[in-house]
Write a structure and sequence with these properties.
five-stranded antiparallel sheet; four-stranded antiparallel sheet; mainly beta; 14% helix; 9 strands
């Protein structure tokens, strides 16, 4: 019996050794290394403004339209000589990044010209801003256009000043489009 006890103990020791070796073989540490990076750019800006002014039928040639821009704000000054004169500007806006942009708002404000001419609220000069609307998307590296039109209303009579001037500022506010992609 002592001999069978020794055999059982020897077998148990052998089984324990085999189990220890098997555990060591399967209990290795798995190490996973990785890196993640985002390579995206954000930028929306006005890149160009082209304007043309049209004199009322049979009228004198219009003075030039003064224009300037920085970032997403454009400034205009239209100088009119008689009722019916119009000025139209096409503003080019470019998404210079690779992230999709969304129009959050478009703000336009008119100010009296330096010559103290008739204010917008009095209806002499009518402004129309069109071509871009709230919520519109602009994909990465794409362009879109905005049109600004100023008209010296035909129903108005010429004020005592020789030229009628009204300044306009238009600002387009863009945000990143965070909507989920399908």
């Amino acid at each position: 019996m002592k001999e069978s006890k020794n055999i059982v103990i020897g077998l148990l020791c052998a089984v324990i050794c085999v189990m220890a070796v098997a555990y060591a073989a399967f209990a290795t540490t798995l190490t996973v290394n990785g890196t993640a990076s985002i390579e995206s750019e954000w930028g929306v800006e006005i890149t160009d403004i082209q304007c043309e002014a049209t004199a009322a039928s049979g009228g004198e040639e219009l003075d030039e339209v003064t224009k300037s821009f920085e970032a997403t704000t454009a400034h205009f000054e239209f100088k009119f000589k008689q009722p019916g004169d119009t000025g139209t500007c096409t503003v080019t806006v470019k998404n210079t990044g690779n992230l999709e942009a969304k129009v959050e708002s478009i703000n336009s404000t008119a100010q009296d010209g330096e010559d103290g001419s008739i204010g917008l609220e009095e209806g002499a000069i009518k402004y129309e801003v069109s071509g871009i609307s709230n919520g519109e998307l602009l994909g990465g590296s794409n362009t879109t256009t905005l049109t600004v039109k100023a008209t010296f209303q035909d129903t108005e009579t010429m004020p005592e000043e020789k030229n009628l001037t009204k300044k306009l500022t238009v600002t387009i506010n863009y945000v990143q489009n965070l909507a989920a992609k399908d």
